[in-house]
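Exercise 7.
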Amino acid sequence: QVQLWESGGGWLQPGGSLRFSCEGPENICNTFDLSSWYRQAPGKQRDLVASIRGYDRTTYADSVKVRFTNSRDNTGNRMDQQMNSLKPEDTAVYYCFGGLFADGEMVYWGQGIQVTVSS
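Solution. The predicted structure, written as tokens, is:
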């Protein structure tokens, strides 16, 4: 398991927007069979927010559809999650994930970043 590096968290009032980034070594993000974002709210289990299978087959949890958008940087070095219309219930620690499964299994996790949405 190799760490990914996340940035972009912080505090924001309801209705605001944030962009998270998740970086990996070299161009590893271009190779992921599955890229995902998870979050864990205080006192709750970790939940899947969004996933990209391959390059463009993207799915979102019902709670974030329309409001959140995932993408990959053209350099292959970074994955981004744009979060709009943030709500207090979006408050959580967010984790990025990348998986390689073609020739065995390798998984990469970000360190987690705090997002707090409140007035």
